[in-house]
Every structure is written in structure tokens, then in C-alpha cells.
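User: Show me sequence and structure for the first protein, then do the same for the second.

Assistant: Starting with the first protein.
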Amino acid sequence: MFNYRQRAKQLNNFIGIVRIRGISPTDIDGLIDYGGKSFIYLEGKLKTAPFPYGQKLALENIAKSHLKAGNETLVIVYRHETPVEKDVIVKACFVEKIYFKKKWYEVKNKKVIQVIESWENYIFKNK
């Protein structure tokens, strides 16, 4: 689902935007907005790549901010081994962990689409 495939390959270089205490921009790989009432943030990592502390903290802070405003939020961290020349099919990737209500939870043997569907069942049942 790319409107501009060539632009999707273009990197954003944040050189010169390092802020106080060494803070620099981070990226988020995906966002699902359920009408401003609930959110899912998706972060994909190569199977062997670290999950940087600053990025983890930024995602936690976003989720906490939504929660404080009364909006349920889920952060999904998934892993893949897709070669760089191929598209990562996110729905088929395995989830490593989720962040929900100020806690991280390890996830075993669940694909991204399964976690999203479970989330939707939860939010639509409870709202």
C-alpha cells in the first residue's frame, strides 16, 4: 500500500537536529488511528537489531500521553528477517513485545495481524 514507492525508499536525514541532552528524532514505522479514540503504534526491527532505549522511551511517552488523555494505546514491536531488497509484510511478522497501560509484555507466537485483531476486539467491546 504505497502511494509513492520511490519516496518511501527515500531516507530522512536528521543531521543537525540533535537537541538538548543529545535528543534526536526517531521514526515510527506505522500508526493506526481509530478516530482519535484509540491508537496502535508499530515498530519493526530486524531480528538481530537492538531496540534503542531512546526510541523505546519515546514510544512509552507517547502511549502514556494518550492514556492520560483517556485514549487506549498499544505499541507493537515486531521482528523480521526480510532481505533489504524485498518488502516487509508486516501482518505476517511475529510480535516480540507490546506496551499497554504503562507495562511491556513479551509476546510468543503471535503475528502482527493477530495482535491487531485482538486489540480491535478489546477496544470495540469496551467502548
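Switching to the second protein now.
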Amino acid sequence: MSRHGEPRDHVVSVGTYVGVFLALMVLTGITVWAAGRDFGAMNTAVALGIAVIKATLVVLFFMHVKYGSSLVKLCIVAAVVWLGILILVTMSDYASRGWLSPRQKTAPYQIEDR
């Protein structure tokens, strides 16, 4: 708070923004480079890893979460936990579909040839 009771905004230097921008450009270059490589089963993990790093930089610096209050940080953590729960439930549903027999997997509106 300032002397007059007004909230003070954190001022981020231009150098910080330029540094984050350059880091994002390097990570974009790494993304393009990785897209042309075959990492086998790790393709998705590599792409998601780079994307998470880039998203973290954007959230921390451009959305000012790094300099925000504890409540803002709590909201971000809660959102990430909720996303994890949604992904976990979706993947558990997807993984449990293997118990269906091939005959049951067909859509109910399909007509079989005799």
C-alpha cells in the first residue's frame, strides 16, 4: 500500500520482459526443431514439456502471477490441480474401455451385414 492507502502495482523492468520474450523465442525454436525429430513414444511428452515451460513463463511474467498476492497464486494452483483431476478422470475412463468386447464397441446405430 502506498502512503495514501492505494494499492501499488509491481513494475516489471523492460529487461525482464525482453529476457522472457527471448526465452519464449528460443523455446519456440526448440519446438520447431523437435517437431522434425522422432522421439518415439516420447513425442507427446517432449512437446508437452516445452509447452508447459512456455505457458509457465507467460503466466508468471506476462500475467504478473509471480508478483501477485497469495490469493492469486492459490487460484492458479487450484486451477492446475483441477486440470490434473479432469485429465486423471478422463484417462481412467479411457483406460477402462478395454473391458468391452469388440462387438459392444460398435455404435448402436450401425447395421451389421448378414
